[in-house]
Amino acid sequence: MSLNPDTPAPPVDVPGDGELRATIKTSMGDMTVRLFEKQVPRTVANFVALAKGDVEWTKPNGDKTSEPLYSGTVLHRVIPEFMIQAGCPQGTGRGGPGWRFGDEIDRSLRHDKPGVLSMANAGPNTNGSQFFITEVPTPHLDGRHAVFGELIDGIDVVKNIARVPCGPGNRPKQDVVLHEIEVFRA
Known about the structure:
By secondary structure, the chain is mainly beta. The chain is about 10% helix and about 25% strand. It contains two helices and eleven strands. Strand 6 and strand 7 form a beta hairpin. The model has no long low-confidence stretch (mean pLDDT about 95).
């Protein structure tokens, strides 16, 4: 997948009319988000392609696959009164799809409320597959993490996941599984 900032964003292949949405289905319930396709097209295209299996990515063992990346992964980092994080194919917070892409920051999209969907990263221009959903406003993340959606249903699921017992690294002691991400228009 090419996410070069000098080229147009790849098209999002989701048929139908209406705004782009995704339902994140977990072992603790479902969350539905509105995706900001027009404001941050590269970030949304990356998320959708990985969710649907529309792009080849590299598994932790080095094999290439076009399976949906998120299906069967775990929410590997949860912090009450902050956020829940997912999208690591290794389940450790250190993995990704085998590529990184630059930050796509739209200053009008802010971490100003609960339920903000944003890219997790390890510093500038290190986006891959990991994302988080805020439980509370987190303005200190503005300009550092690309907001690409917002929760429209399921804040109770975010709150419940954020409060599961955790061990080292804020990893849940019992796996919270991300079963699949269903992308659609409504």
